[in-house]
Amino acid sequence: MRGRGSTSGVPPEANQAGILIEIASFGSSLKVTAVDEASGVEISFIAPAKTSRADIRQLAKAKLRYVLAKKSGGQ
């Protein structure tokens, strides 16, 4: 069923920053999971289905940077 459930059959997209991003569609929402390849740190969040992929990538990177900084004792 297109647009419903997990998209686990779709490989996550990788970008040049070493971050894997998987986007799963659930009705009018998207569940976004991002993993830092170097450390294995993972974050996730929910976004409206209308959110642009560029905005999702930007938010995923920012949230991942924030979590990595917190884990290393930074702000």
Give a description of the structure:
The protein has one helix at 53-71; strands at 13-14, 19-26, 29-36, 42-48. The protein has one domain (13-71). It has a four-stranded antiparallel beta sheet with strand order 1-2-3-4, covered by helices on one side. The termini are far apart. It has 75 residues and is an alpha+beta fold. A hairpin with a 2-residue loop joins β2 (19-26) and β3. The radius of gyration is 13 Å and the shape is elongated.
Q: Keywords for this structure?
A:
single chain; 75 residues; 1 helix; 25% helix
Reading the helices and strands in chain order gives EEEEH
Kindly give the count of domains: 1
Spatial strand order of the main sheet: 1-2-3-4
Q: How many beta-strand segments?
A: 4
The whole-angstrom Rg is 13 Å
Give a brief outline of the structure:
The chain is of the alpha+beta class and 75 residues long.
List the helices and strands and how they pair.
Blueprint: E1 13-14, E2 19-26, E3 29-36, E4 42-48, H1 53-71
